[in-house]
Design a protein that fits this description.
The chain crosses the membrane at residues 13-34. The protein is α/β, with parallel strands linked by helices. 35% of the residues lie in helices and 18% in strands. The strands form four sheets. Strands 5-4-1-8-9-10-15 form a seven-stranded parallel β-sheet, sandwiched between helices. Strands 12-11-13-14 form a four-stranded mixed β-sheet. Strands 2-3 form a two-stranded antiparallel ribbon. Helix 7 packs across helix 9 (246-255). It is globular, with a radius of gyration of 22 Å.
Length: 460
């Protein structure tokens, strides 16, 4: 064991969440209830998982907090931004994820969490109609301060950054927080392809923000830029491009802050990243994998817009190709040596209001075995989207805060376990790790290293 160089988790940890919807309020309510001893944080790795440290007779299995200095639930303070003005209690009741009996005991605390106006561009989420948004006032010689047609106008992207930075500063001061983490748990934005002339260099991204380039700079990028500039780790819980660009990697290195993303790995992709290794390890062939979902909450509503679904589709499709590789096993996944006839992979999401947050995923997997004989696997996962996402939010926030105190900055690959489309340096030909058990090894080894222990499991 080597000396632990991680700064202790002293003082309050502010968690600022972008979005005050089903996922956010389920996360916040669960933490508030857990620290009162009224519920258990089931599903949270940081609260339940144990990791082996040492070997042989010296082996011990310890909780994360016994290896590294994690922030305690009692030290967390919550804040949020949202396009709707309802406080966290009202939003939790509206979401109908949790029963009233599981919300009422912390009603007073939830009511105090009132969303700050969101940095919002309706072109990026056309199905949302909230009016709790940031506005920029312009001066008129006849009517004083006003916007176009007498109303405030959308701020420029750079103005959004400045407003968000001020929000973070004020929240941190008002709540006496020693540290802050910013978590995106809002809706999926429309797909923003990576543009080398804007997204590869930090100076180009800043110039685009100042020029109010609304095509290449999504509102989520303003949140990320503001967070990193204010010394706060940023976590992208949706499939948005946001921090998955070299310019943001440069900013994270410049500010010495961790970034993680993208997209919470909750239901179908969690199953896929765990089940695909079974097929690969057993050397079975794959003809096709068809995945479809029905979802009725606000996330489902937003994803019903084709431009927003495209962002999610790219994220969900990326999992299989790095686990079952046609170029490595052409007989099993490439159908011989013909690269154009590799297995078929399709993902669908359908908006179905009656299910609300209770998402249902179906997977049809067509495999083949000895002498090419076909077989099928059917998986039907009736899950609760926010119930699965809430513990991921907690883990990602606590571990990102830990990484910052350990001096780890830039892309946090060890957090890939929690994410659907893990970040990686695609400019250098790096491939994302989507294999669930390899991701778990990365997670355990990072905890060991930050705790002063040697990593002892190879990733291959």
């Amino acid at each position: 064991m080597t000396q632990n160089k991680v700064t202790p988790a002293q003082g309050k940890l502010g968690i600022l969440v972008v979005g005050c919807g089903a996922v956010s309020t389920t996360f916040i309510t669960g933490v508030l209830m857990a620290r009162k001893g009224l519920t258990k944080p089931v599903g949270s790795m940081t609260q339940y998982d144990k990791i082996r440290v040492g070997r042989g007779a010296d082996a011990r299995y310890l909780h994360y907090a016994d290896i590294v200095p994690l922030a305690k639930l009692d030290d967390i303070v919550f804040g949020c931004w949202d396009v709707y003005p309802q406080n966290a209690y009202q939003a939790a009741m509206y979401a109908e994820v949790l029963k009233e009996k599981d919300i009422e005991p912390v009603r007073d605390e939830l009511e105090k969490i009132v969303p700050m106006p969101a940095a919002f561009d309706k072109n990026y989420a056309k199905r949302l109609d909230g009016d709790n948004v940031k506005c920029s006032m312009v001066r008129s010689s006849s009517a004083g301060l006003q916007g176009k047609n007498g109303q405030c106008s959308m701020p420029t992207r750079w103005q959004m950054v400045e407003m968000l930075r001020k929000d973070i500063q004020q929240f941190k001061a008002a709540n006496d927080c020693a540290r802050v983490v910013v978590l995106w748990a809002a809706s999926t934005e429309i797909y923003v392809p990576v543009c080398e002339s804007v997204h590869y260099q930090l100076s180009d991204l800043e110039a685009a923000m100042k020029a109010d380039d609304r095509e290449h700079v999504a509102p989520s990028m303003c949140y990320a830029y503001a967070a990193l500039s204010e010394g706060a780790p940023f976590i992208m819980g949706a499939p948005n491009t946001t921090v998955d660009i070299p310019a943001m990697w440069q900013l994270a290195e410049q500010t010495k802050m961790p970034i993680a993303g993208k997209d919470f790995k909750t239901g179908q992709t969690l199953v896929k990243s765990g089940f695909a290794p079974i097929i690969g390890t057993r050397c079975l062939g794959l003809n096709g994998w068809f995945s479809t979902n029905i979802l009725g909450n606000r996330d489902g509503l937003v994803l019903d817009e084709p431009a927003n679904f495209r962002t999610k589709e790219v994220s969900k499709l990326s999992t299989l190709e790095t686990i079952l590789k046609p170029d490595v096993q052409p007989d099993l996944y490439g159908h011989g040596n013909d690269e154009d006839t590799q297995y078929y992979h399709k993902v669908r999401i359908n908006y179905y209001p009656p299910r609300n947050d209770n998402k249902e995923g179906w997977d049809n997997i067509d495999i083949f075995g000895w002498m090419g004989y076909p077989m099928q696997i059917k998986i039907n996962f009736l899950c609760r989207d926010s119930i699965l996402a809430a513990p991921l939010c907690l883990d990602l926030c606590l571990l990102s805060d830990l990484a910052a105190r350990a001096g780890r900055f830039g892309i946090q690959r060890f957090l890939s376990f929690f994410l659907k489309s893990p970040m990686h340096d695609y400019t250098q030909g790096e491939e994302a790790v989507n294999h669930l058990y390899q991701q778990y090894t990365m997670l355990k080894n990072a905890i060991r290293e930050m705790g002063g222990y040697e990593p002892d499991e190879e990733i291959d």
